[in-house]
Amino acid sequence: MTLPNAAAPRVNPLQRIWLREIGMERLWLRPAPAGTPQALVSKPVLPATGLGSTPGFTPGSTPGSAPGSTPGSIPTSTSGSTPGFAPASAAPEMEAVPSQSVAAEPIVAQAAQAHPPAVRPAERTSERTSERTSERANGRPGIPASILNRTGPPPRPVPKTAEEEAVEAPRIPVAEAVKNANLDELREQVVACTACGLCQGRRHAVFGHGATPTRWLVVGEAPGEQEDRQGHPFVGRSGQLLDAMLAAVGMSRDTDVFITNVIKCRPPGNRNPKPEEIASCSPYLMRQIALLKPERILVLGRFAAQTLLGTDATIGSLRGRVHALKTDEGGEIPVIVSYHPAYLLRSPSEKARAWQDLKLASRMV
């Protein structure tokens, strides 16, 4: 509403009291400069966010005015203060701008507190991402910092070397690999064998040692500590006892006997061989028998006897008689079972039975 330039507008007593309470009495009643039209307006009650209107406010009217009143007119009030307005000391000064709805700035602040602006989905996502990044920076589980802080395209995979590709190449089963190998090739295959986990803790793979061609083939169970160090079978105390036993029946490992084991690598702590380890090494032993063609086989120990004869019987029930091992050519090789020299060192009373087994083997033609 445009006010006259010559004099202040007329107000009734109630309006004057209301103007005095909100601190605008002097501003309202002060005449405007000559030739300058002036209107009292304030900023909109609510920001343009679609939060709604002020209760009791009709578009085009002033809050608190009676229905049908003139837009821009000053409402009347019979109470000591106007609802929604701050005390007179906190009332803002009015601005001389084109005529708009009259309202006070404190209402804007109160409305903002009562109705906070809605958070957009993108802002929520940004906040959650910031919180997760902060957690990772504080050492909490998440994506490593090296990945979070990396810029540019991801690194290209490093090409594998020829050695890595050779390791990952499909392995040929031991039985197929040794099928056509001669004795020297078979020895090389045993030394390079990685068919089971025993290769990881060995010092030397023990292929065997003795006369070739041979009359007797002596088969033990697995290398011990001394055998693993030197790479030869039966070189410790058990080996010394075996040499003495063979010499008692006129046999020597240098001229008559070839000595080997079912397992070519030492089990950790001299433990018993596992079934999968025996299965991995058995093709080497069978190929040795096929190449050496011994007259007879002396088997020492339970695991060697059960592997070679394909049985789970005890050594006590297997010794004292002659067994037969069928060859690929259709022949048979006599097999004699006896106690392992390491067992005889722990149980000297069993040496008499071992002697009987040796005599049984030596009498065979």
UniProtKB/TrEMBL annotation:
This protein's UniProt keywords: 4Fe-4S, DNA damage, DNA repair, Hydrolase, Iron, Iron-sulfur, Metal-binding
CDD domains: UDG-F4_TTUDGA_SPO1dp_like
Annotated ranges, domain Uracil-DNA glycosylase-like: 207-359
Region annotated Disordered, chain positions: 35-167
Gene Ontology BP annotations: DNA repair
MF annotations from Gene Ontology: 4 iron, 4 sulfur cluster binding; metal ion binding; uracil DNA N-glycosylase activity
Ranges of biased composition (kind: Low complexity): 49-87, 102-117
SMART domains: UDG, UreE_C
Biased composition (Basic and acidic residues): 121-138
Gene3D superfamilies on file: Uracil-DNA glycosylase-like domain
Origin superkingdom: Bacteria
E.C. code: 3.2.2.27
InterPro entries: UDG_Type-4/5, Ura-DNA_glyco_family4, Uracil-DNA_glycosylase-like, Uracil-DNA_glycosylase-like_sf
Catalytic activities: Hydrolyzes single-stranded DNA or mismatched double-stranded DNA and polynucleotides, releasing free uracil
Protein name as annotated: Type-4 uracil-DNA glycosylase
Species the sequence originates in: Achromobacter kerstersii
Protein family according to the UniProt entry: Belongs to the uracil-DNA glycosylase (UDG) superfamily. Type 4 (UDGa) family.
